[in-house]
Amino acid sequence: MSTERRVVVTGLGATTPLGGTITDTWDAILAGTPGARPMTEDWVEKYELPVTFAATIHTSPEEVLTKVECRRMDPSAQYAMVASREAWADAGSPEVDPERFMVAIGTGIGGVHTLLTQWDNLREKGVRRVFPLAVPMLMPNTSSGNVSLALGARAGAHTAVSACASGAESMGLAVDQILSGRADIVIAGGTEAAIHPLPFAGFAQMQALSTRNDDPAHASRPYDTARDGFVMGEGAAVIVLESEEHARARGARIYAELAPAGMSSDAHHITAPEPEGAGASRAMREAVQRAGLTPADIVHINAHATSTPVGDVAEANAIRRAFGDATDGMCVSGTKSMTGHLLGAAGALEALFTILSVHHRIAPATINIENLDPEISLDVVRGEHRKLPQGDIAALNNSFGFGGHNVALAVKSI
Amino acid sequence: MAQSEQEILAGLAEIVNEETGLDPETVQSDKAFTDDLDIDSLSMMTIVVNAEEKFGVRIPDDEVKNLRTVGDAVSFIQSNQS
């Protein structure tokens, strides 16, 4: 038996544009369901936004949480709470030492709904109508704080903020915390609720969003020649991570091993990816190396693949730069074609998909590819999802964020 | 026009329920906000502001600390309604 300390995944939870649970979300992924839909909010018309659709949450947290919980938590924390409770129940709601139990839930933007709603209250109704919980609801750590409080985690409550890499970074930090001996069990993931006119307008002004208003279902199309930007999504995804020892001792069901992350920063441009993919490929190589693997062990990549013209090609180049000819043995999925881009929750949700891919030996299809971009020299899974081999396998999940953040997570079968 | 004590109590119970989830039946005149109903200062602040709006009264911050029980609040609201 190995004496090496390993970190394993024992619980999964998510609330996404495709479903109110990870089970429903995964079923929708395997069925190739698009999550984007026209937005019905009056602000879309009021502000004449150039984009009129998004991958909005499938199941409102109001159907799951109490009225009081909803009043006291920003939507980003509501999503995190829903996903965390599901993941904790999925892990068997174990009895744990609170001082060895940690939370690490990242976000890209934080409590932006609360921030802007309360600003409106101040301007329109005066100081006495500002909700006394405005600050604890808008702070970026509102989700990790609330979840630690709800589940009694006292080893620390951490919040990685690295834009669209936040969720994956949180998981990477959680693995390191367990390996360094600071915790036995961690709830880790990401959350985002930024479908609000201001961030939406910001992304639209940046020309980052798809404007395929007449056909939202086909707007998110990573690797297709006609891709024109990402589709804004929202939701949360969370996993329960444990030291293998802790999980085995309590007889937990284990989905997979999560290896320590590879991380880097580009120091190139605040939003644009480094075109040669040097930083991203370093993160990928580091992830493989820290997992004790070689590129030939990686059979599948759940790519960042947001469906932007530049980003998809930059990532494809970075993958090939990282792994050379071994890239040909990796089938690649772009699940944002279905979920849209969940920003700070994206990396976390795609890590869950990668875990389920390794666990069930299935790589999901990328939908909406009519013409594969010839600049993409990857084995892209499309049409039907694909079976992954039996035996020891490993898969990689990439996440990149504005600011030049690169995070790669390696998942190993167990 | 001033409302009856019963009307104010029922209205206040609704506000407390909205904020804390407490059963409106438990919000009785003899109950203390902090010691009996476990309402913290942040929730109290929200309850006060919502009561001001509902009952058309002004409850100054200095006055809030004198409102120990639900009955204290009902009396204050009643005597300040025009």
From TrEMBL, chain A:
<dbReference type="GO" id="GO:0030497">
    <property type="term" value="P:fatty acid elongation"/>
</dbReference>
<comment type="similarity">
    <text>Belongs to the thiolase-like superfamily. Beta-ketoacyl-ACP synthases family.</text>
</comment>
<dbReference type="InterPro" id="IPR020841">
    <property type="entry name" value="PKS_Beta-ketoAc_synthase_dom"/>
</dbReference>
<keyword id="KW-0276">Fatty acid metabolism</keyword>
<comment type="function">
    <text>Involved in the type II fatty acid elongation cycle. Catalyzes the elongation of a wide range of acyl-ACP by the addition of two carbons from malonyl-ACP to an acyl acceptor. Can efficiently catalyze the conversion of palmitoleoyl-ACP (cis-hexadec-9-enoyl-ACP) to cis-vaccenoyl-ACP (cis-octadec-11-enoyl-ACP), an essential step in the thermal regulation of fatty acid composition.</text>
</comment>
<feature type="active site" description="For beta-ketoacyl synthase activity">
    <location>
        <position position="164"/>
    </location>
</feature>
<keyword id="KW-0012">Acyltransferase</keyword>
<dbReference type="Pfam" id="PF00109">
    <property type="entry name" value="ketoacyl-synt"/>
</dbReference>
<keyword id="KW-0808">Transferase</keyword>
<dbReference type="GO" id="GO:0004315">
    <property type="term" value="F:3-oxoacyl-[acyl-carrier-protein] synthase activity"/>
</dbReference>
<dbReference type="GO" id="GO:0005829">
    <property type="term" value="C:cytosol"/>
</dbReference>
<feature type="domain" description="Ketosynthase family 3 (KS3)">
    <location>
        <begin position="4"/>
        <end position="413"/>
    </location>
</feature>
<dbReference type="InterPro" id="IPR016039">
    <property type="entry name" value="Thiolase-like"/>
</dbReference>
<comment type="pathway">
    <text>Lipid metabolism; fatty acid biosynthesis.</text>
</comment>
<keyword id="KW-0275">Fatty acid biosynthesis</keyword>
<keyword id="KW-0443">Lipid metabolism</keyword>
<dbReference type="InterPro" id="IPR014031">
    <property type="entry name" value="Ketoacyl_synth_C"/>
</dbReference>
<dbReference type="InterPro" id="IPR017568">
    <property type="entry name" value="3-oxoacyl-ACP_synth-2"/>
</dbReference>
<protein>
    <recommendedName>
        <fullName>3-oxoacyl-[acyl-carrier-protein] synthase 2</fullName>
        <ecNumber>2.3.1.179</ecNumber>
    </recommendedName>
</protein>
<dbReference type="InterPro" id="IPR000794">
    <property type="entry name" value="Beta-ketoacyl_synthase"/>
</dbReference>
<keyword id="KW-0444">Lipid biosynthesis</keyword>
<dbReference type="InterPro" id="IPR014030">
    <property type="entry name" value="Ketoacyl_synth_N"/>
</dbReference>
Automatic annotation (TrEMBL), chain B:
<dbReference type="InterPro" id="IPR036736">
    <property type="entry name" value="ACP-like_sf"/>
</dbReference>
<comment type="pathway">
    <text>Lipid metabolism; fatty acid biosynthesis.</text>
</comment>
<feature type="modified residue" description="O-(pantetheine 4'-phosphoryl)serine">
    <location>
        <position position="41"/>
    </location>
</feature>
<comment type="function">
    <text>Carrier of the growing fatty acid chain in fatty acid biosynthesis.</text>
</comment>
<keyword id="KW-0275">Fatty acid biosynthesis</keyword>
<dbReference type="GO" id="GO:0000036">
    <property type="term" value="F:acyl carrier activity"/>
</dbReference>
<keyword id="KW-0443">Lipid metabolism</keyword>
<keyword id="KW-0596">Phosphopantetheine</keyword>
<keyword id="KW-0963">Cytoplasm</keyword>
<dbReference type="GO" id="GO:0000035">
    <property type="term" value="F:acyl binding"/>
</dbReference>
<feature type="domain" description="Carrier">
    <location>
        <begin position="3"/>
        <end position="81"/>
    </location>
</feature>
<dbReference type="Pfam" id="PF00550">
    <property type="entry name" value="PP-binding"/>
</dbReference>
<dbReference type="InterPro" id="IPR009081">
    <property type="entry name" value="PP-bd_ACP"/>
</dbReference>
<protein>
    <recommendedName>
        <fullName>Acyl carrier protein</fullName>
    </recommendedName>
</protein>
<keyword id="KW-0276">Fatty acid metabolism</keyword>
<comment type="similarity">
    <text>Belongs to the acyl carrier protein (ACP) family.</text>
</comment>
<keyword id="KW-0597">Phosphoprotein</keyword>
<dbReference type="InterPro" id="IPR003231">
    <property type="entry name" value="ACP"/>
</dbReference>
<dbReference type="GO" id="GO:0009245">
    <property type="term" value="P:lipid A biosynthetic process"/>
</dbReference>
<dbReference type="GO" id="GO:0005829">
    <property type="term" value="C:cytosol"/>
</dbReference>
<keyword id="KW-0444">Lipid biosynthesis</keyword>
<dbReference type="GO" id="GO:0016020">
    <property type="term" value="C:membrane"/>
</dbReference>
